[in-house]
Amino acid sequence: MIFVGIDWAEHHHDVCLLDREGRVLATTRIPDGVGGLAALHAVLADHADDPASVVAGIETDRGLLVSALVAAGYQVVGVNPLAASRYRERHPTSGAKSDPGDARVLADLVRTDRHHHRPVAGDSPTVEAVKVLARAHQALVWTRQRQVNQLRNALREYYPGALGAFGTDLASPDAVAVLAAAPTPTQGRALGVADLTKLLRVAGRQRNLAVRASQVRQALAAPQLAAPPVVAAAYSQVTAALVGIIAELTQQVTALEDDLTRAFEAHPDAEILRSLPGLGVVLGRPGAGGVRG
Questions:
Q1: SS3 (DSSP) at 221
Q2: 79: which DSSP letter?
Q3: pLDDT (tens digit, 9 = 90+) per residue, 208-245?
Q4: Quick one: 68 and 168 in the same domain?
Q5: Is the pTM of this model over 0.70?
Q6: How many CB atoms neighbour CB 158 within 10 A?
Q7: What are the counts of helices (DSSP H) followed by strands (DSSP E) for the chain?
Q8: Which end of the chain is less crowded, N or C, counting CB atoms within 10 A of the terminal residue's CB?
């Protein structure tokens, strides 16, 4: 059994090979791409007769390099960078961090502790496509939430009525529509029930329009502490910018949800997967396969 640590970077990868006892068999640096992969195969061929006897540790579980290693028949272990960092602290190879040293740490980690980490499976292209879209969807949802948190912090400083109207649901179509039309408390108080009803209808609300408009009107018109006008004006510009970003992110999240739904439905086992107890509906819509982020 040969244990390989690969410290990957954008343009090159440092490699360290260990035997069962932890002795260094070889170290090298390979370029990224097909040439580097061929060089890695050549180094491994000097020490292993069977690809299945090679266990490689790398701080990622995706990408072209990982896919090529799995396809070649090597056992690939995706190591969480935080886990690698903790292991590095427990087993320092030198007083300073270095790429070659990190490669040896990864090799030693899979030699002694690979049972604590998840092997990388060789997924089909269809599954890989679903994973790519799912990760992108998650990243966009998280990005939107960070913008929502900034918006909440801004409103807390000058526009508590908006927080009273929408609470934590600041990414909702209702909140985006009203805050885009009335980014200051003065503008919010000027909106009547008829104005709010129209805004909510255009935003897509179909049920309880009058009731919701009255609730929002009551919250915006309620007595509240006021910031100095010049400060409120500055915060309103921040709010307008954040609302615009949130609205665009919501459109892109919805588009990715549609793409993810189609990719999931293209999987030959989609019907079986949907039938599993507790799996439910993806992204909150029929046939989409997961939970809305």
A1: helix
A2: P
A3: 999 999 999 999 999 999 999 999 999 999 999 999 99
A4: no
A5: no
A6: 25
A7: 12, 6
A8: N
